[in-house]
Amino acid sequence: MQYRTIKIYGINIFYRECGRKDHPVMILFHGFPSSGHMFRDLMPMLEEKYHCIAPDYPGFGQSESPSRKDFRYSFDHLSEIVDDFLTALHIDKFYMYVFDYGAPIGFRIAMKHPEKILGIISQNGNVYEEGLGKKWEARAEYWQNPTRELREQYKSAFAKETVIGQYTFGTEAGSVSPDGYSLDLYYASVISEYDEIQSDLIFDYQNNVKLYPQFQQYLCKYHPKLLAVWGKEDPSFVWNGALAFQKDVKDARIIPVESGHFALESRCKEIAEEIIKFF
How many domains does the chain have? Predict the structure, then answer.
């Protein structure tokens, strides 16, 4: 594993990289509240077949976190930064692994550059309203009525208990190491303006939902090879979101995993095997 940094528009973007450079590229798009470290166990399992690259978005992990005065924290903007990151690394074709926030980022890039996508792994990376869990109903009300009080209330999304619950809900007791969520909580404590950056993204998530029909049109038109391997007990992006892919990609492979949102934490080997078998 190599650990590197590259400047994109003056912002230091950190990324993990492994595997031979003459292998097909796989870009791994992390979710909230994590970073590329969530792929720390998966990448070595894939490196015999793929050249794996996992960037941290601005405001996450080891990447730079520019001030909100100077940088717009939106999914459109993060997607632009990641797209420019791929250009800077001269990556013109790749598989993409999308999880959580990584789905709307990855699918924006796929819509812009459909010719670059070799295939898609969606691990609880939702692009269908059927996949939105119960909590999103309240968030939709917040998006319609964005008061300061509700913005403060939704900062509970990155409270310690909530983050730990994201990792452990729906998993077998004792199967999830504390290392992953402990590192997420550490980053949250040291990144400047973390609460406000993440609050900006929670509010902006509404624009991802608005783009769901366009993401689906992309799937229907280009029919990429697609594997949805899904933590079936995830309360945020529910199992129906995985099944929905078959509406637009008829031969998509849909695999339930006995885990929750962060399925890699307890089912990494199983997920790696499904990827290697399918692609």
Answer: 1
